[in-house]
TrEMBL record:
Keywords: Membrane, Transmembrane, Transmembrane helix. It comes from the Bacteria. The chain crosses the membrane at residues 12-37, 57-82. This is Alkaline shock response membrane anchor protein AmaP.
Amino acid sequence: MHADRTNRAVLILAALVLMAGGAGVVVLSTGLFATGATGRAISDNVVSGAYVEHGAWLWPVTVAVALVVLLLAVRWLIAILFSTDRVSDHRVPGDGSHGTTTLAAGALAAALGAEIEGYEGVQSTGVRLIGDASAPRLVLDVTLAADADPDAVRNRIETDAVAHARTAMDQPELPAVIDLSVGRRSSDRVH
């Protein structure tokens, strides 16, 4: 979730800078504050003059700065597109005298998903462990049948499935987020 906030902050900052630059160009082109800028060419300015006069060293510096910006942008895109906040494996706490126990997050998710999908009124589930491996959080996305009782399903998930996950991970205080949504179909099961 922190990546979303960081992305929003960076994009808002970039948008503000670009809007301020665009507003400055509009103000200069209309002659609102300076009448001398309306008849001049875009290349007729101090920056263009500096590049003409000091181009031997200014162009390489500009290219180097552009490459740094490009590398930062590529790193940002890779982090957004290919990173995940999912936990891959969870090391079950213990004294370690007889070795360590590692619980694969995918196995836990598959087991919990199968268990929850067996509950009355549940159509589908999505289960994942997110956050830091030392302090994960359990996220359950559950789609209910149109005629399901959301309170009963939520209570059963909390008392059974989440309790089973906490026991398997040996984390009695494992935080769990349960997102319930109602599907369009009614339950296929006969009550």
